[in-house]
Amino acid sequence: MRENGTIFIADNDVKTRDLVSAFLTYQGYCITAAETDVPFFDTLLKNNVDIIIADLVCLRLIAPDFMERMTAINPLMVLIGYGDTGAAEYKKADSDSVFTLPKPLNLDELESLVMRAREYQSMKMFDREAGASVQNQLLSTTMIGTSAPMLALFEMITKVAASNATVLIQGESGTGKELAARAIHQLSDRHGKNFVPVNCAAIPDDLLESELFGHVKGSFTGAYANRAGRFEMADKGTLFLDEIGDMKANLQVKLLRVLQNREFEPVGASKSQKVDVRIVAATNKNLEELVITRDFREDLYYRLSVIPIIIPPLRERREDIPLLIHTFLTRFNADKRNAVKGFSRDTLEILCAYEWPGNIRELENLVERLVILKGSGVIVPDDLPEKYLSGKVLQPALVQLPGLQADNLLPEGGICLNSAVDEFENNLIMQALARSGGNKKEAALLLNLKRTTLIEKLKKKNLAFSED
What we know:
14 strands; 21 helices; Helicase, Ruva Protein, domain 3; alpha/beta; 4 domains
């Protein structure tokens, strides 16, 4: 929103005007209220108005060409309330910037609409004033990462968002596929409309059809009234079909029809409904393999994968782990009112070496757990669960002959050469074992020795190696 932006309330009903003004002022908004006998448009301009709350009857009294004149005062946001009569003509004139609320007023609903209007206004200002730089900023705040794979992903999302093409997002569980879908929606021309997510794996098969397409009254037991489905809710917006690989064959056929004809039939209905929805699907399964095994329709696969996007797993962008940890730590410290200062360097090295089979979701859960249990101070390796320690990678120490100075110069008092060489050999053997994870055959190859020779040296030197 613009700095010092104002909500303008226009209503001849003094009680209603004062009630709304007092309520929104209490909520922290800057309010200007007036009757309709003031110079209306002059007031809007002088007060840097962002949102109007006005009675439809008042609007007609102010100016018959109200909506046309409003367009010229961009980026003004209009909130039409207090009655449905005549609302359709205003929504038709500028459907993205008109919100309706009937009388009698529900103040909680009013505040919710004002918040939605402010969010929409902010998005319009981003699109107009900042362009691509703000798109990158939006992506970097919703999808955290500065690694090369993430920067390439951001570029792909920015390009894809500008079109209406169907997108198939693929990636392992926990990589942030829904975040990518939301980013596509927020950067598209549909951002002022609904983003409707559906987890196809979480809804029972016998209910998923009704959930997607809705149903009419009496279509099945328990259908006591007409119900809108997710497709209807997402009209003019984006429908996100998560875990699309788990969708059964009969629903795949119906989804294919929607993609082809842009229409669907609610359960029990005799007529089709037209719909304007952008489909973004996601899966952690290999759909090409499912096509081969005939568990997924080939024609639907090609309809969905017009633009495929692959989200990289966390192990392929390890350089983002410290940034992710810092972000999660800041959030959970605030949420839990704790004071964990950070992670020690050794702890970060262990976590960066971990494979992260659960990806970002696993990392986020770990940070939350550590913040709760630690409470304050610095997270050290001993604070980590055992599974993260058992797989840690030991970093070899800097190779340096024992007894020598840091620059390997012979000290003035001299050294025992045999002891120094023996300790140096021991050091190299232990580094090789650490790098190979204790595998004596691989360690021997690193030292250019036979495996039997290495074993003999370990016995002779009485050296023992532990993977932990």
